[in-house]
User: Fold this.
Amino acid sequence: MRHVLRNFLNAFCVLISLFFISNAYAENWQHPGVLLNRAQLDFIKQKVSEKAQPYYQQFLNAQASAYGSKNYTPKGPYTGGVIQCGPYSNPDLGCSAATSDSDAAYLQAVLWYITGDQTYANNAIKIMNAYSRNLKGFAGHTPGYPCPGASSQCTNGPLQAGWDSEKWPRAAEIIRYGNNGSAGWAQADITAFSAMLKNIYQPLIYKGSSGNGNWELTMIDAMMGIAVFNEDLPLLRYAQQMWKARIPAYFYNYNLDNPLYPGTHAPFPSGKTGNWNGQTVFKTHTSGVSQETCRDLGHTAYGISAAINAAETDYIQGGTLTANLYTASGAQERIINALNVNAGLELSGSTTAPKDFCTDVGGKIIPGKSSTYVMAYNHYHNRLKDPRMADQSGTTGVAGTSNTYQWIQKGVLTNKQSSGAHMTVFESLTHYANAPTENSIIITANNQTMAQGSSIPTLTYSINPSTTLTTNPTCTTTATSSSSKGTYPITCSGAAKSGYTFTYVPATLTITEVAPTTGTLQVSASSSSDSRCSKVSDTLYVDGSSSGTKFTVGNGVSTTLNTGDHTLTLASVSLPLPSGDTSLTGTCKSTLSSTQVTIQQNVKTPVTATYAYQDTSGMSCKITSAKVTMQSDWGQPTLVNQFVIAITVQGVSANATSLNGTIVMKDPFVQNFWGNFGMMSSSYTNATGKFTGSISGNTFTLEGFITNATPLSVGSNPLQSMTLNGVTCQ
Assistant:
């Protein structure tokens, strides 16, 4: 009965404290806001740019790691989109792949924010899209996807879902909101990713776990991240409540637990006593032992990492120093005590447990070489300045106050891969002990753009966390109104507020070239009566440019030019001749060989180029005779005249195969005309006839019929003019 009452009181206190914490949170969601906010990301970026240690070395380590490779390729999701995870990931059908991919997505996002290299953003987006588009669920846990074989082959599904969904929102928040949302993640893909978190992952972790605490703490951390990304306030509150209930069941603290549970520990949230993996002595000298310490320090680190990650996200989303998960319901005393004890065990490197530790497992400790602890140290030492979380000046021993600091220096910073093993990868890069504290303010200059020759714009900045300063900073740039186009630094300095330190993040002023005013040049092109130039292409050159704008006669071209005077030049184009004809050559030349135009703003300036064929072969054409040979009505209403025209051509070979001619008669044709020179085609319209053909030798004749309003006498000349291959016949 006493335990029932205590459990009721504990639950009541959780609800009351949760109510007061919730009222302390900001009304607006903070983005990015899972594990890292903008202030922290800007701080890291600045430290890396300064090559400050240990940030810069951790940054290099991150780039050199498999997760930070620019060539990272997604390993999953598993074929068919269903992941199956057995005990200790055996069988492993997509489990390790999902762990690797979610770690990589997060680290690629962090590296993108620091470097601005789009490759990292593209990699993170590619990984996240691969899962949101193809993942269907977890075998044995997602409806519709039963476990193949025995159910024991799928037991780790919910834990794997927790591990993955801890990291997915971290990556997604940075990619979606970081660097002013410039990563290029499509809204449709964001929507699909949000649905994946809600519909596939959340159902598997929502009820938590009644087993080892690292499972449920992992699920709580995952729900915190999902709640932030999906802006799901009820889910956030639910996860906070679960965290507050699980922490006492995971970290034993003599001062807090012995009055309520003499000689033992707090029960699991389910009310069960719980398995403490061989720890049976609960006294003042074993205070700080974790529910999984005697299992191994690796799994203990999973639980520590998940607990702290959730608290950090809670803090970012509106917690204060006195109202957040880090400090709620005695959590501060429990966590500090537990971190120092477990870090001390890691630090010793011994497999022999201290007195009264792990008595039911032979007094043995299995080291874990964990890469966590950094985030918690930053909060309790830097932000809260709690003397129980000390630096090197603290005490040593089983629960020494310097143990956490010493393990970070000797065991965490020396881990070049920092894979995390389900913990935060490269926590020392993102949350090292010198990260921003409660009394640290980051002044971030804002990027600006101006046109060349303009006045320097007002240089602005942002303050994080938002606060009123005693003295506002002043921002300056090396650029002036007469500076050339390019980029120039913006730096801020001079901010003041009692009790606060300041970090300044620079920005860039980009000076752009003034865009010139423009107008349009409209080039029209036409050919003379010679059809050989009707489809020729030409090129327009402006102001002596080596590259021009191509256009086709009959279509013309429009081109945009800067306002002012320009010189236009047209190329001369050789006329293509039929295959095998090498005797007739020429060019289509425009009357517009070069001209000056003045382009006015937003005005179309027309220019017309007329093309005519010019022979370049030395060919001549002589009309030997042109006469009416007979006169008859031929059944027509009026008399018609038959004509014969004899032509002598000079300057061409006897095998010339390309003759293009035009005859203009004094009266219209009444019947087609023909020739004795291998005529290929002929046509006539009114008094104009056109023909093509070949000759043998240098002469040929044309015959046909025309009608005359006044009949021509036999022997008279019916021909007005004739051209052959562009040459006027004489």
